[in-house]
Amino acid sequence: MDFAKIISYSFKYPFRNIRNLLILFIFFILVSIIPIGIIYENNYVLTIGLISLFLFILIVPGYLFSFVKIGLNESSIFPSLNLGNTIYDSLKVLVLRMAYMVVPAIVFFIALSTLSVSGRELLLNFQIHAFLLNVGLSLVMVLAVYILFEILLFFAKARLAYLNSLSEALKVHKVIGDIRKIGIFNIIKWLIFMAILVIVASVLSAWIIAIPNVGFLIYFGIFIPILESIGNYSLGLLYSNIIDDGFSQISKIN
Fold first, then answer.
1. Alpha-carbon distance 104 to 90, whole Å?
2. Rounded-to-integer distance, Cα 4 and Cα 10, Å
3. Among 84, 97, 151, 187, which has the minimal tally of Cβ within 10 Å of its Cβ?
4. What are phi and psi of 75, to 5 degrees?
5. Tens of pLDDT along 13-39?
6. Three-class secondary structure of residue 246 per DSSP
7. Residues 250, 232: Cα–Cα separation, whole Å
8. What are the tens digits of pLDDT across the range 178-222?
C-alpha cells in the first residue's frame, strides 16, 4: 500500500464508526479524573480514578494493539473487546515495552552517574560552560538512544501483532530487518506523519483545555484516543507492506 493511502485510510478509520471508540473514550475519561480528585482533595473521585487506571493498564494497551492487527489485515472493521484476549495482549505489549526500554534506562543511569561525578568537579572549579556542555551532550545521547529504541519498539509491536510471538518481537535484528524491508524512506515519512500528529495534538491541546470545566476531559478523553487509534492503525498498514501476498486479509478497505 502506498504511503498516501496509508495516511488517507488512517485518518478515515476512527470516524467510520466513531461510536465504537466509546470503550476508549470511557477509559481515558475515567483516568483523567485523577488530577481532579487530587486538586479538589476528593478521595471518592481519586479512588475511582485509581481503580480506572489499574483497569486502563490491563485493557487499553491490548485494545490499541488490536488496531495494529486490523491495520495488518488492511481491514476497516473495529476490534471487539474480548476481555481475556485483550488483557493477555496488554501484558505482552507491556513486557515488550519494558524489554525495549532496558538499554535506554541503562544509558540514562550511566550518563547520570558519570555526570554526577564530572559535574561536581566542574562546578567546584567554576567551569560552568564545560558543565553545561556535558549536561547537553548527556541529554542528547540519552534522548537519541531513547528515540532509537522507541522506533524499534513500534515495529517490534507490529511484528508481535503479525507473528503473535513475543520471542520473535524481542529479536532486535529481525525487527531491524523488517524496517529495511519496509524501506528507510517510508519509515521516515511515517515518523514525520507521527510527529505532525503530536505537534497538532500539542497545538490543539492549548485551545481544548482552555474550555472551562470540560476542556481537559474532552482533550484527554476524546481527542487523544482518536489520535492513538490513527497512530496504531497506520502502523499496521505500514507493516502490511512487507507481508507476503498470500497473507490472508479479512475485509479490504473500500
1. 22
2. 10
3. 84
4. -105, 155
5. 888 877 778 888 888 988 888 887 888
6. coil
7. 18
8. 999 988 888 999 989 888 888 887 788 778 777 776 777 788 888
